[in-house]
Amino acid sequence: MARFLAWFRHKPDLEVMSRKVFKILIIHELFSGVWGTIITVVLAGFFPTLMATATDIIFLPILIALSAILIRIPTIALFWYTWGKIRPGLHTLVGFVMAVSGFGVPFGFRYIFAELTYPYALAMAMQGMKDIARIAVFFNPLYPWLVLHTWFGALSIGGFIVASFFTIKGNVNPKFAWIGLWHGVLFLAVQGVLGPSYLVNLNSRAPLLYSNILGQAGSTFDVAPLFALKLSLITLLVLASVNVWKRIKRGYGVVPKYALVLGPVAIVVAMIGEFMNDGGRYPYLVLSGNSGLRPSIFMNVYTQIPWTTLFAVVGVLLTFVGIFMVTAYYALNKRFLADMPETIQAKDMSRGPLTPPNASDSPPSCEDVFSTLEHAHYWDMIRAFLLE
Q1: What is the mean predicted confidence (pLDDT) over 230-259?
Q2: I want to staple 163 with a disulfide (CB 3.0 to 4.6 A). Which of 103, 123, 180, 279 is the partner?
Q3: Could you give the CA distance from residue 25 to residue 124 in angstroms, rounded to a whole number?
Q4: DSSP 365
Q5: Using CA atoms, how far apart are residues 322 and 328, in angstroms rounded to an integer?
Q6: CA angle, corner 107, sides to 103 and 110, nearest 5?
Q7: Cα–Cα distance between 263 and 27 in angstroms, integer?
Q8: Model confidence band, residue 332 (pLDDT cutoffs 50, 70, 90)
């Protein structure tokens, strides 16, 4: 959106913002790609029956998700490496395709979670109606609330992460932080409707999960304390957002330091929600009313997997998460993803490669040129040679 407005309204400062924010996207996409591969390998090794069922009954939704991934990866690279080299309108179009493909990934994969919680198509398949089930999967009544909850949750988190990013030393910018903040608050308000609506649907579609979330009688795994923690963190997020809103309203003022917590708190809220939605099915993997199918039905029957191995795998995965968090910090704050200075970026990039410079524009100084090409290693070698 920032890239589109930078081109459509001729706002060079939004060009700077979009390029900075896009670097965050690159880092997270790299991690999510690796993480998705790890999860697929683990599921294929530990739960081959589940994978076989998913790729049969839920084949079409998975195909949609994989197709979106195949579109998203090259468009991310194309969007980054053609920045300032093609017409701004065409570049914005590439970004639009990239953004739409991002919605397509959860659009497909969320059908899997909808079927695990409320096996609408899976129940048909177990009755021998597999051909009908492959189409019926698209009509799972729990799915619309789940995917909308996912989409707007991701948009809200993105806004809060942007607000936190432009609070970090070296990136402080009240206008950019304000833009991220109001996006986060807007989509969080939408979540205030979608979240309860999804919970109400669980009451009729997956009563066991509903009971576990609220800690009601007959629950098999009480996650009510986590639900209370999630609500407390949302309250903290709202209060912090209101205070930051007052300090930098419309992009004017000083960004308070506590704005740093907005992004991390939003991420923790999402992680708790995911654990509640998945762990709340315990001891079942697939729910059916107040009972369900246990994980042992879908596990690898050819190899006995000890609990120590399972815990070791989970430990390794959590270690990868920690490594990613450290790497993301250094990549964003230690300038591992080099970029051109904002002064040159705002002046030159927004008008596109086919637009001639204004007569009033002064040519860049020698220092500007050096700093612009600073990330190119060959230029460092040439400069060292000339200084000798």
Answers
A1: 92
A2: 180
A3: 39
A4: P
A5: 10
A6: 130
A7: 15
A8: low
